[in-house]
Amino acid sequence: MKREINLNPEQVKGTLIQAKQTSQRDYLILKTTTIGDFRIGEVIGSAPRLWVPYCPSCGWHFFSKNRCEKCQTLHPKKAGFWVASEPNLPGLLIEDLRDDGVWTRMKGWKKKKNPTPPKKKSLTPELIAELRQFIGIRLCSGCNHKHDLKGCHVELCKCEVLQGKIFDISWSRVWQFLHTYSQRAGLVDWKLNHSHRLRHYMTTQVGRKHGVLAARDIAGHKNLSTTNRYLAETPEEEKREIIGELAGVLE
After folding, report:
1. How many Å from the N-terminal Cα to the C-terminal Cα in the chain?
2. Do 43 and 26 touch, CB atoms closer than 8 A?
3. DSSP string of the chain, one letter each residue
4. Buried b / exposed e along 101-136 (16+ C-beta atoms within 10 A)
5. pTM of the prediction?
6. Which of 112, 118, 133, 201 could be a cystine partner for 7, CB 3.0 to 4.6 Å?
7. Is the CB of residue 205 less than 8 Å from the CB of residue 12?
8. Exposed (0-12), middle (13-18) or buried (19+): which is 144, by Cβ within 10 Å?
């Protein structure tokens, strides 16, 4: 079974502090992922590649229930190769940033059947301001001219707003710097920390303070059963406090 850790507020805050002291980009990626309860692919985009499984026994590429559909051999998970592919998620885009949040293309938005519609994720005014400052003046993917959020300064340019990804970075780089900042923050099991643990942390915090329905909606889950899997178990010390509080009512 895969080992996972449940982050506490001090560990998350410590990791963000280490990131802020080193890189504004890294800090904003981690802060946005946490506050918005995002999947990392929704923030930076999915990897432009596709894993193609391969059966060493017969060379087949189609599997059902971890078995080759042709020879029924049990499929080893590491048997396969990557091929170049169009990303499933574009990541957060500059043109989708608003004063109160950002329009987000979430998991399943490219499905042919029942696609997940884009959703506006709420962000704090402070984070919006930090993101806009980070974007600054850069090359627009729509017109290939340099301009800021107010528009293009090149005459006769039809691109009214700056377009492109807010964060242009690979998944592996995020994984690397999150490990670095977690280690600097003093996490004992820093190797087990990854971006999805930040999502589990935020979902847990929302669920405890505002209920599981709010946690489901903010996380963007379709089913409560999925949200329940994200909620970390209540710490033993907190359990004792709750039991003691309820026991006091009986006295």
Report:
1. 44
2. no
3. --------HHHHHHHHHHHHHH-HHHHHHHHHHHHTT--HHHHH---SEEEEE--TTT----EETTEETTT-PBPPTT-EEEEE---S----BGGGEETTEEEE--TTTT-SSSPPPPEEEE--HHHHHHHHHHH-SEE-TTTS-EEBTTB--STT----S--SBS----HHHHHHHHHHHHHHTT-TTGGG--HHHHHHHHHHHHHHHH-HHHHHHHHT-S-HHHHHHHSPPPPHHHHHHHHHHHHHHH-
4. bbebbbbebeeeeeeeeeeebebeeebbebbeeebe
5. 0.83
6. 201
7. no
8. exposed
Q: 193 φ, ψ to 5°?
A: -85, 135
Domain residue spans of the chain: 49-85
One-letter identity of residue 72: Q
Q: How far apart are CA 119 and CA 180, in angstroms?
A: 32
Cβ-contact 36, 25 below 8 angstroms:
no
**Residue given tokens 């920390």 in the structure block:** 193
**Number of Cβ atoms within 10 Å of the Cβ of 185:** 19
Cβ–Cβ under 8 Å, residues 103 and 118: yes
Structure tokens at 218: 């903010």
